[in-house]
Amino acid sequence: MSLKIGDFIAKRAEQVKGSAIREFFSLTEQEDVISFAGGFPSADYFPLEQVKEILMENISATGYSFLQYGPTEGVGQLRSSILEYMQRLGVCGEESNLLVTSGSQQGIDLICKLLINPGDTVLVEEPGYVGALGAVKNYEGKLVGIPMDQKGIRTDILERYLQKIFKNNGKVKFIYLVPDFQNPTGISLSFERRRRLMELASHYDFLIVEDNPYGELRYEGEKLPLLKSMDEEQRVIYLGSFSKIFIPGIRVGWVLGFKELITKMISLKQSTDLCSNILGQYLVLGFYQGGHFEQHVKLLREKYRRKCRVMLKAMEHYFPSQIHWTKPKGGFFIWVTFPSYINAHELLLKCLKEKVAFVDGKGFFCGCRGDNTARFSFSEQTEEDIVIGIERIGQILEAEINSSRLTASR
């Protein structure tokens, strides 16, 4: 009898699919391609010398214990340091409120695993972060996208949806969002809408998952309060990460939430990976306690600020007037909207032939929308390559628009 593997797959896994965006990276990340696709930190800014010093200091001080298994909830000293860091951001907590995770993505997965029953409604920004969309789908949640504008998620549309579902005796489990320099748009949620979101969560009784990987990378404007700092009812589950502000490969993030949730998440994590990267945790700890953190983040702000401005200026110079884009004040991303007659995926294929790439926007939507949108990341490429790449894309866009005009005039 021949083996039919499909007969052995669990029903919940039948719908699990890899992100089309991530699968396409193999094409966009070739060495000779100027890629604006990946939301990767620039390897040029990794603090290699300090990492070497911290490693040697740990070996001298502890032998090789930092290469051993560690506690599921995370190294105690690191958890204390993270709580100290969060206090500077206006958030108080105890070690029982905090779990160290293998990047914030594991935090998203554990939250979905813990909270979502099949069919539960989960709200997201639209467009939204593909890693969160995928995690919700994997646990059979029902995704509902709430549109955004230049001030972030539309709380007026959110309220109308909540009124409708509440009237029909429905319930929202939680809303996931990236309030600061959102992936993929680069937009930040305004203070007024942060306050309104907190009010709606209280009135309609749902949780908020606040993901904040880019909050330290503000290039202009005043810092806005974390949703977690406005949380008087313990409704906000906060996700943090060292991937964008230190080193992504160590996979160290954290979840800060109410004690009962963290206790359950620790149990779930034990059956997932036992513990997060211990070596990575000690690297973060040494970097933070050694006083390097603030200076390094300051350097990143200066470097990425320049790259952001270079890309925005290049777009203004080389992109046709029919193209529109966001103007982020921080983070890694610029969201581009093309005329409706330009399909972003087809445009991407043409751009790849000219050795330049971005991510088409369809994968960031819950439904069949976003065909004429794209995400551009300025973080990884040099300033020179940013200008060259945007010029190439601008030339292709000019040709597309001219071709459309000729077709329309016939």
Give a description of the structure.
Helix content is 43%, strand content 14%. The chain contains 13 helices and 14 strands. The chain has helices at 11-14, 20-28, 48-62, 76-88, 103-115, 130-138, 155-167, 191-204, 259-270, 278-289, 293-318, 344-353, 383-409, and strands spanning 34-35, 98-101, 121-126, 142-149, 152-153, 172-177, 207-211, 236-241, 253-256, 324-325, 333-337, 356-357, 359-360, 373-377. The strands form three sheets. Strands 2-9-8-7-6-3-4-5 form an eight-stranded mixed sheet, sandwiched between helices. The chain has a four-stranded antiparallel sheet with strand order 10-11-14-13. Strand 4 (142-149) and strand 5 form a beta hairpin.
Structural features:
410 residues, alpha/beta, 8-stranded mixed β-sheet, 13 helices, 14 strands, globular
- Rounded to the nearest angstrom, the radius of gyration is 22 Å
H/E topology pattern: HHEHHEHEHEEHEHEEEHHHEEHEEEH
Query: How does the major sheet shape up?
Result: 8 strands, mixed
| Structure classification | alpha/beta
- Strand fraction: 5-15%
Approximate helicity band:
40-55%
- The total of helices stands at 13
List the uncertain runs.
none
Label the overall shape.
globular
DSSP, total strands: 14
What layout of secondary structure does this protein have?
Blueprint: H1 11-14, H2 20-28, E1 34-35, H3 48-62, H4 76-88, E2 98-101, H5 103-115, E3 121-126, H6 130-138, E4 142-149, E5 152-153, H7 155-167, E6 172-177, H8 191-204, E7 207-211, E8 236-241, E9 253-256, H9 259-270, H10 278-289, H11 293-318, E10 324-325, E11 333-337, H12 344-353, E12 356-357, E13 359-360, E14 373-377, H13 383-409
Parallel strand pairs: 1-12, 3-4, 3-6, 6-7, 7-8
Antiparallel strand pairs: 2-9, 4-5, 8-9, 10-11, 11-14, 13-14
Helix pairs in contact: 3-10, 5-6, 5-9, 7-8, 11-13
